[in-house]
Amino acid sequence: MHTTAQTFKKVFTASIVSATLLCSGFVAAHQDAHHQSQLEKAIAGDHRSDKNKARDEYRHPKETLEFFGFTPMMTVVEITPGGGWYTEILAPAVKGKGKLYGAHYPDTGEDNYYSNSRKQLVKKLASNEVFSEVELTNFVPRQASELAPAGTADMVLTFRNLHNWRDEGVVQVFKDAYKALKKGGVLGVVEHRLPEGVDPKEAVGYVSQSKTIEQAKAAGFTLAASSEVNANAKDKAVYPKGVWTLPPVLRLGDEDKAKYMAIGESDRMTLKFVK
């Protein structure tokens, strides 16, 4: 028979366990809310132009980064930040807590696209204190590149770049990403999506989702999930000037502008891979 003391001990122990679980749940919920507020604060920041914020409607930065599992304490690599649209969000979101590497084209001292793009990015990063902790590394398409010190990154991200690198470049950059990531790290890919059955030659700038998955798996990754957060059913992918016919580029200028604005930005695959 159980004594009163034994019964009390069991009840007391159960209460402690319940309180511990409740406390753990509260802490986790608090951390999730804090992470979310950090990201939301970065997205709403005054350092972002109205023009860039207007594109949130199509690029869904909050939903996209949350899908990838982003948190402010992560070491993150953004491959070819370009004009810094996503850098404006990532840099303040991780500042003081995590680390952001911008793996961008090197400045070779020549007057070419790579060097000029690097100079413009350096100028942008110097323009506001929110970028003060961003570290740039060198990335050269179709060449082995150290995106970040090997095995240090929690997340590697590429937004609308694969079409520029072609198959050889995609294969190489996925290898580079795999090397940079920790075990269990995430490779996040957003890219203009080629509709199944459409000839790539007729849909310039669009990339096959199934081929992208195959290329990532060949580099050692596992497809963890895919999302339709950046999907656009209105985009049929066959246009006079390829994907650049659509906004924000609008390569045809005022010609049929209303038509292409009504379609909006491209249909995009959003893929989460894990090392």
Structural account:
The protein is α/β, with parallel strands linked by helices and 275 residues long. The protein folds into two domains: 1-44; 49-274, Vaccinia Virus protein VP39 (Rossmann fold). The chain is 42% helix and 17% strand. It has nine helices and seven strands. The protein has helices at 4-44, 50-54, 56-59, 61-68, 87-94, 113-125, 162-180, 209-218, 257-263, and strands at 75-79, 99-104, 135-138, 153-159, 181-192, 222-227, 268-274. The protein has a seven-stranded mixed β-sheet, with helices on both faces. Helix 1 (4-44) crosses helix 5 and helix 7 (162-180) runs parallel beside helix 8 (209-218). The longest helix is centred in the N-terminal third of the chain and has 41 residues, at 4-44. The protein is globular and about 45 Å long. It starts with a helix and ends with a strand.
Give the SSE map.
Elements: H1 4-44, H2 50-54, H3 56-59, H4 61-68, E1 75-79, H5 87-94, E2 99-104, H6 113-125, E3 135-138, E4 153-159, H7 162-180, E5 181-192, H8 209-218, E6 222-227, H9 257-263, E7 268-274
Parallel strand pairs: 1-2, 1-4, 2-3, 4-5
Antiparallel strand pairs: 5-7, 6-7
Helix pairs in contact: 1-5, 7-8
